[in-house]
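QUALITY CONTROL LOG
STEP: pairwise intake check
CHECKER ROLE: data steward
CRITERIA: each record must contain a sequence immediately followed by its structure tokens, with no blank fields

ENTRY 1 OF 2
RESULT FIELD BELOW
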Amino acid sequence: MVVTGRAALLALLLTVPVALVARSLAVVLLLDLALVLLLALDAALAGSPRRLSFARGGDRTTRIGEEAVVTLAVRNDGPRPVRGVLRDAWAPTAGVAVTRHALALAPERVVRVAAVLRPTRRGERRPDLVTVRSLGPMRLAGRQVSHAVPWAVQVLPGFPSRKHLPSRLARLRELDGRTALMVRGQGTEFDSLREYVIGDDVRSIDWRATARASDVMVRTWRPERDRRVLIVLDTARTSAARVGDGTRLDASMDAAFLLGALASKAGDRVDLLAFDRAVRADVRGATGGDLLPRMSRALSEVEPLLVETDAHGLVSAINARVRQHAFVVILTALEPSALREGLLPFLPALAARHTVALASVRDERLEALASSRGDAAAVYDAASAEKAIGDRDRMTELVMRSGVEVIDAGPDDIAPRLADRYLTLKAAGRL
């Protein structure tokens, strides 16, 4: 049995004045006994919460930054109406703002309540117990029972850079020959013949076709399709750093999704590897519309691990997955202490076999700190920030000397910058 605030107020109104006026313990005990009997009667008249049945429905998946709605259907199988409060409890990271609902359910009737999820973390989110408190007619007391009603919502990583996809696809269509633009470069494929126009590269003239025709003919080329693209996410300690509104890993995932969607539309084969000291996620052989869902599911449970990256193991995992030439994108941090003793020594050999790009999510607060001069503390902060920026620039130069492309941008810019670099390399025939 549960009691409400009304019962406490009634006890205060009845017992305290009598105790002050009559000053008789027997009278007080008699009133308390009457109150207990009244509460017991009110609870007995309440509808039974044990006679309720529950069923859930709604969304099974969502992304961070998006909503999911899970409905809870409640049916009263008992002979009395159930009036009271229902609490549908979820973990705080599920982001359910309203968990308590007023309940007024007649016999053989069904009512539905909705939980609107705005999750703040990736992974699987499950509800806790559904607790129903049924009150009696006088709303002094009631009965309370908790029920387990299972459900699961898979929270996938966010994809805010999706808005950049249409413009990059338009550029891709130009490279793919769907407009009049044709390019020539190392590793491109022959597309067709057309008449020479001023400005064409004379190296593209097809002399045999020219001899057969009445005009100078040139070959047009289109970027090669069916290239291999391997996206590698570093999930070690540097990926846990806060940048913008999330972590470096969150921004790296977003960049991986945009690049994966773009490369898949271009006809390239895209694989994904998440690694720190072991493989945390591995997506191979996905094609077309199946790629992004598989990438999202694989990365939904991945969180940064506070260890140093096993660079030798990472390079071994890359070599095991791509034995022929591929475009390898490593999303990690341009942190000198981590790269110098870790991945940097392996980059020249890796770049000799593949086209390699290192994409790093930059902490834009460093630039703000470097420009601050308000007081002595701000000057010291600015000096530290300038040193960090200088170390990062020197590390960028060392990485580029290894034959590796470097993309260093803030959390909002890393995804479109990486997509643009992919298109540039594809146009140049370097993939």
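ENTRY 2 OF 2
RESULT FIELD BELOW
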Amino acid sequence: MDQISTGQGFIAALDQSGGSSPKALAEYGISTNAYQSDAEMFTLIHEMRCRLMTAPAFDGRKIIGAILFEDTMMRQVGEISVADYLWSTRNVVPFLKIDKGLEEAQNGVQILKPIPGLDALLRRATDAGIFGTKMRSVIHSANAKGIAAIVAQQFDVALTILKHGLIPIIEPEINIQSADKAASETLLCDEILTQLDRLNADQSVILKLTLPEVNNSYAPLIAHQNVLRVVALSGGYTRPIANQRLRQNAGMIASFSRALLDGLSAAQTDAEFNQRLSQSIQEIYDASVAGEDASLC
């Protein structure tokens, strides 16, 4: 809890699921011809993640947490379960992606699909040593009814997560291609504040939000007593652009996926891979710390 609430660094998003794994592998240099089944695909994804997690630069000095996919949670790094390896060996706090994808767009948003067996999944996560969870839904336009629905659903699921003693990462992503992105951000901030004010004093959440059009738009959320951290998703921005935007938003830290993995390849030697990953981690860390430092001014 101390590391997540006050630690310097960022949260690595390593939670590509079944739908996004083929693209993640392709960007890593592994084509669909390299596997014949989902089982083979997930094994390749796990090998890629193990290469990341065991790299010298991937530790708690700059990465305070990492978000995992359910399949990854059930696997091991060597002889150690992934969650235990992250915390006991790398000093990185493990989170779990729990959502099962998105419904079709309605009222300008895509809410979460139902999560069958949620309580059982949360019990397995607790037993595995997971600290918190993450669930992603998407906002495509500034539709007040849709944004209210997406935030209400996120907080409704968050209450179930909190009952299991886990910390929820609430992620209502705003599509960076949205024509009215800034208006969506205003509506979203207001709806989140309404829901936060309904929480008990001992209920804490993390917010994962798209980097805003107007710098420091999320300052009221960062300052709220029930918010442990506000973290930024890269959302399709390149790493340089995402880092630049992050530096301009006091109190936000990164929780990047594509921007973290960009430039890594299965064909690289370990030395090449580790050097490129170390550079990416340093750049994202610097941008995250710059935002933290700005919040103290």
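INTAKE CHECK: passed for both entries
DESCRIPTIVE NOTE, ENTRY 2: The chain has one domain: 11-295.
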